[in-house]
């Protein structure tokens, strides 16, 4: 395939499609993103629906490349997972998130909890409990204030996930199942896991008041959470109507654009720090 190089000249790469070249370029950039200070975190508030009280935040990684501009996580997270870079990135995210919690507190904002996403790959290198506890120790964040988010497929597809998750539980770190309802249908694993929170996937919330199937699924998840004594949070809440529906059906926590988009740490402070 012929591709146009950065300086306008063409080169021939027999084994590579244009897509392959693009991917390689992205991969090369991504590998240097941390050292070049191009990655940062956004934080999305999690609120109690009836009071509007801030109960936590979810940390979401952002990558802004000088040439490419902002690259969305859906593009670079899978690449980071494929290349193994996710281990470095994941560690950076975790450290930054924990450190930010302590900073907010010093600045007069107590954020009860922070949720951090974990990829399957981060479980494959052996126990991640050492990494997590080192970061907690270094930053001084209480383990109870950290909640790790994993999807159902991470749990089902990772051989020793159960062992590692139990290790994390034993040091006091919380666990949430992300995108709940979109993964494996087997619920048996829920019983064996020290999980505290289910996050109802955004796809069920989107048409909650118009699509009877989504409505039924959301209600079923809320009920399941209740009967298993888990806390349930809805993600992707964009309207007052959705929030009202959730509250009516016993889901008390929500996250979504209706409350706030993911924001920079300073903006979170401005909006949520109690006024003197
Ligand atoms: P996720 O964990 O399910 O995160 C929620 C995504 O939904 C975020 O997208 C967030 O910005 C978006 N969102 C929140 N509220 C709304 C809403 O009301 N409406 C709509 N349409 N979207 C909403 P984002 O930040 O682009 O992240 C996408 C995915 O990338 C995340 O999905 C997560 O799977 C992954 N990701 C992000 N940060 C990290 C990270 O630090 N580590 C890992 N392993 N994955 C991450
Ligand atoms: Ca998440
Ligand atoms: Ca999610
Ligand atoms: Ca998702």
UniProtKB/TrEMBL annotation:
The species this protein was found in: Rugamonas rubra
Domain of life of the native organism: Bacteria
Domain EAL: 23-276
Protein name stated in the entry: PAS domain S-box-containing protein/diguanylate cyclase (GGDEF) domain-containing protein
């Amino acid at each position: 395939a012929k591709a146009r190089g950065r300086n306008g000249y063409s080169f021939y790469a027999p084994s590579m499609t244009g897509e392959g070249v693009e991917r390689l370029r992205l991969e090369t950039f991504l590998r240097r993103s941390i050292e070049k200070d191009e990655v940062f975190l956004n934080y999305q508030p999690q609120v109690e629906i009836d009071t509007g009280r801030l109960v936590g935040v979810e940390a979401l990684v952002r990558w802004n490349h000088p040439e490419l501009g902002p690259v969305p996580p859906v593009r670079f997270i899978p690449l980071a997972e494929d290349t193994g870079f996710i281990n470095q990135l994941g560690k950076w995210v975790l450290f930054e998130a924990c450190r930010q919690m302590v900073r907010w507190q010093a600045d007069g904002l107590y954020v009860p909890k922070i949720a951090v996403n974990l990829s399957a790959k981060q479980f494959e290198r052996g126990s991640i409990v050492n990494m997590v506890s080192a970061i907690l120790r270094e930053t001084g964040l209480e383990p109870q204030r950290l909640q790790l988010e994993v999807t159902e497929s991470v749990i089902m597809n990772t051989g020793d996930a159960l062992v590692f998750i139990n290790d994390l539980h034993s040091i006091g770190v919380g666990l949430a199942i992300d995108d709940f309802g979109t993964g494996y249908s087997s619920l048996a694993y829920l019983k064996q896991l020290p999980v505290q929170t289910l996050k109802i996937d955004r796809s069920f919330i989107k048409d909650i008041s118009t699509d009877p199937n989504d409505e039924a699924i959301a209600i079923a998840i809320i009920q399941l959470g209740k009967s298993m004594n888990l806390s349930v949070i809805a993600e992707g809440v964009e309207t007052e109507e959705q929030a009202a529906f959730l509250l009516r059906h016993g889901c008390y926590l929500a996250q979504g654009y209706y409350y706030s988009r993911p924001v920079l740490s300073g903006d979170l402070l401005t909006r949520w720090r109690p006024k003197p």
